[in-house]
Design a protein that fits this description.
Blueprint (H helix, E strand, L loop, with lengths): L2 H16 L9 E4 L5 E6 L5 E8 L13 H8 L3 E2 L2 E2 H10 L3 E6 L4 E8 L2 H16 L5 H18 L3 H14 L12 H6 L2 H11 L6 E6 L3 H12 L22 E4 L5 E9 L8 H13 L5 H8 L6 E6 L7 E9 L3 H18 L3 H14 L7 H13 L6 H10 L3 H11 L6 E5 L3 H10 L1
Parallel strand pairs: 2-8, 9-13
Antiparallel strand pairs: 1-2, 3-7, 3-8, 4-5, 6-7, 10-12, 10-13, 11-12
């Protein structure tokens, strides 16, 4: 990166930190001739552009036999493309002062670019992004190296309590659904993957008419239209929407205790929750803030940690996805306190489901959520993350404008009804990693 570009980024960072909260900007939306959906926010506060291109190419499209394929495909995109080696790609990006990053989760795979909008830098950065998206070459040598790197990481993770916990919890609440699979795969499944597998996944899931492009920054609508069209012009068309398998309901309440030498017990409790766009999202969001999402002002933290000192950390959240993402309650505690902490969590959830929050709790939650919302959209990077969600999950273009109003109109009755509909205290799964002997014996008897 040249000294001039480096200095400019330092100055821009200072401007971003000092910028006051802004009003919610308007979102423009259109579709390219190839069928790509584009979401655009025009802002000329800074000479910068953020672009994200997402595809339905997340780990939900893996199978047990080939788990890790989606993640490996996305990982390899920028490691060789259209005549450029991975080093040349990195050098061209660095020369412009740009940042090129992968984007990957359960539902999505893609790339994101942050660049200056001066003509030379913008042209070179977008050229690299276009090559990476449309003409990756997946070199055999790079594939072998990255597989070895992933396998080594997975084997290391399999010794850590947090990774063991998350893997067991996903398997327990999702069963045979692909959300149960570890996104990075398993050592054996990754070892089996070939270049043909990667190429086939890329051709099936990185299609122009399934892509969603999010753009925010210092360009005009005409410039945004041109660059969006160029970024997907050479991609194939799938001719159909991606299919996300539905999630089945859980009809059990199993507690799985797993031995581990960790000094404390790591605990997750939960079940499949809601999909993006569910009409009950705001009652559940506000209600969960009161239950376990609001830190020290939430009930779970108050009951488990503040009143009884039974946990170092405690929380809950909903993670809505294309289909039903997880509802999760988590905590960490001493081994000998895990059973007591779990009982407090369960009784707190049962009481919340039966009675809902108080009016005082609801008022305080609304004030905190609405008061903090401007800080969640006070930079282009944060706005881009919202734009990606709005675009990929086809939420209303007024989502940001309506956010505070949707929070304000939630009632105690709404929260009670929504939680009764989506959370069943009798069917919550539990995983404890680092359990004490009594819990391990009890778990073994139940299996």
């Amino acid at each position: 990166m040249s000294p001039r570009i480096a200095l400019l980024f330092v100055l821009l960072g200072a401007c971003l930190m000092a910028a006051p909260a802004r009003a919610t900007p308007p979102i423009e939306h259109w579709q390219t001739a190839a069928g790509t959906r584009v979401y655009f926010i025009e802002t000329h506060d800074l000479p910068m552009l953020d672009v994200s291109v997402d595809f339905p190419a997340g780990s939900v499209f893996d199978t047990a036999e080939m788990s890790g394929l989606a993640a490996l495909t996305q990982r390899l995109l920028r490691l060789g493309a259209a005549g450029l080696t991975e080093d040349e790609i990195a050098r061209r990006v660095a020369d412009t002062g740009a940042q090129l990053n992968g984007r990957f989760d359960s539902d999505r795979g893609g790339m994101a670019l942050r660049t200056l909008t001066s003509a030379d830098e913008l042209k070179q950065a977008l050229d690299v992004l276009g090559r990476v998206l449309q003409a990756p070459v997946f070199p055999e040598a790079v594939l072998a190296r990255e597989k070895a790197r992933v396998i080594a990481t997975l084997r290391d993770q399999d010794t850590k309590p947090e990774a063991i916990l998350n893997k067991a919890f996903s398997a327990l609440i999702y069963g045979r659904h692909p959300y149960a699979l570890r996104a990075a795969g398993e050592p054996d499944s990754v070892a089996r993957l070939t270049r043909d597998d990667v190429l086939a996944f890329y051709r099936s899931h990185y299609a122009a008419d399934q892509a969603v492009i999010s753009i925010i920054g210092d360009v005009s609508r005409a410039q945004a239209q041109a660059l969006a069209a160029a970024l997907t012009a050479s991609l194939p068309r799938a001719g159909r929407a991606a299919v996300f398998p539905e999630v089945e309901d859980i009809k059990r309440a199993e507690t799985r205790a797993i031995a581990h030498p960790a000094l404390q017990s790591h605990v997750l409790v939960g079940a499949p929750g809601i999909r993006r766009g569910d009409p009950d999202y705001f009652p559940l969001y506000v209600g969960n803030y009161i239950l376990g999402g609001g830190g020290f002002v939430s009930r779970i933290v108050d009951e488990v940690r503040s009143k009884r000192g039974l946990a170092y950390s405690a929380y809950s959240y909903f993670e809505p996805l294309k289909v039903r993402g997880p509802f999760v309650i988590g905590l960490q505690t001493r081994r000998d306190q895990a059973a007591a902490a779990l009982e407090v969590v369960r009784s707190t959830v049962r009481e919340f489901l039966a009675q809902g929050p108080t009016e005082q709790e609801l008022t305080a939650a609304k004030q905190n959520i609405v008061g903090g919302f401007p800080l969640r959209i006070d930079s282009n990077r944060k706005l881009l993350d919202y734009l990606r969600v709005i675009g990929f999950y086809e939420l209303p273009l007024t989502y940001l404008d309506d956010f505070s109003a949707n929070v304000e109109k939630v009632t105690v009755a709404d929260i009670r009804r929504a939680f009764a509909q989506h959370v069943d205290a009798a069917h919550l799964e539990t995983v404890v990693v680092g359990a004490d002997e009594a819990m391990l014996r009890a778990s073994a008897k139940s299996e």
